[in-house]
Amino acid sequence: MPLHDISRRTLLSGTVALAGATIAPAGFAKDRTDSSAWLRTPYKYNKLVLGGSKVAGAFDEKAVDCPFVFFHDGRFHLTYVGFDGTGYQTGIAVSDDLVTWQRQGIMLARDPADPVTRFNIAAASILRENELYAPGRLIKVDGRYVCAWHAYPSAGYEEGPAVIGLAFSTDLKTWHRGAPILRPEDGADWERGGLYKPYLVKDGDTFYLFYNAKTADKTWHEQTGLATSKDLITWRRHPANPLLRNGGPDAPDSRFASDPFVATHRGKWAMFYFGLSGADRKARDLVAVGPDPLHFTKVNEVLIDVGPPGSIDDDYAHKPALIFHQGDLYHFYTAVGGRYPNDVRGISVARSRPW
């Protein structure tokens, strides 16, 4: 395969051999201390809770990806991106038990007349309360909900250098999209290849937008950085970016440290994320913890690991989204089983208590 034909999906899938991919990593040490108990959801459901609809012509016909979960009007809501073979659009589903989900259709649709979103628009987060063990309710700013999205400029699966923007709604049904707020060409070398998942947080009078990005080389690295704002209009990249960097050659995040989900608990901040190993090309959910939204130290364990051969997540278990309900912490993630181009991509869940 020529280098110019490499996409993020084929890179993740193992279609392309990565430099140095000779041994499988041992993973993070299983240093399981009580101080990390609040982060763990070791019990997998082991089935997809949402998959590609397989409805011809539907926006989510081929696959679903990138979960974000919240509680609103007495029900759980799940935003996700659907892939129809051309690009991404964002859908929403509802549930009463976090397992059985009913699709509600498209939340954010691409706009063929818009050069930014003519092929793709992927909502990644809506501003939500920070406490991990709270119900997961949304927060309004000046009477409006705030959604962070990213969009790739070309047709296909995550093709081209994506940008990040915001959208606003008073009712969660009609969204008004603004112009991009972050572009890769305005950033440093670590993000020049394109921007990925934005996760929006508000603490005090400051908005924190965490996002991962990739380098511009053909076999790239992804890391996670931060931009801040006081007004959701003017954004400043953090001078210490990237905040979450790739690990060493044998680490589970040696290639990617991506897709942040950020929450607080008892004075601590946690950044859940996924790592891609440069050794075995598997993607796993990991976590880093810190005293504030600017400083994070990686926890030395894998939170959600890939499953055995033939399972729904034998290739990757990645892209975290968490919510608390009736004493249990639920960890949603994108599960991918099988090998590209015959892999199956959908959303599954693990929790802190056995099923």
Tell me what the structure shows:
The protein is an all-beta fold and 355 residues long. The protein has one helix at residues 8-13; strands spanning 43-44, 63-72, 75-83, 88-95, 102-108, 122-126, 140-141, 144-151, 163-169, 176-177, 194-203, 206-214, 222-229, 236-237, 256-265, 268-276, 283-292, 295-298, 316-325, 328-337, 344-351. Strands 6, 7, 8, 9 and 10 form a five-stranded antiparallel β-sheet that branches. A four-stranded antiparallel β-sheet has the order 1-21-20-19, with no helix packed on it. The chain has a four-stranded antiparallel β-sheet with strand order 2-3-4-5, with no helix packed on it. It starts with 7 loop residues before the first helix and ends with a strand. The chain is built from one helix and 21 strands. Helix content is 2%, strand content 42%. Strand 19 and strand 20 form a beta hairpin.
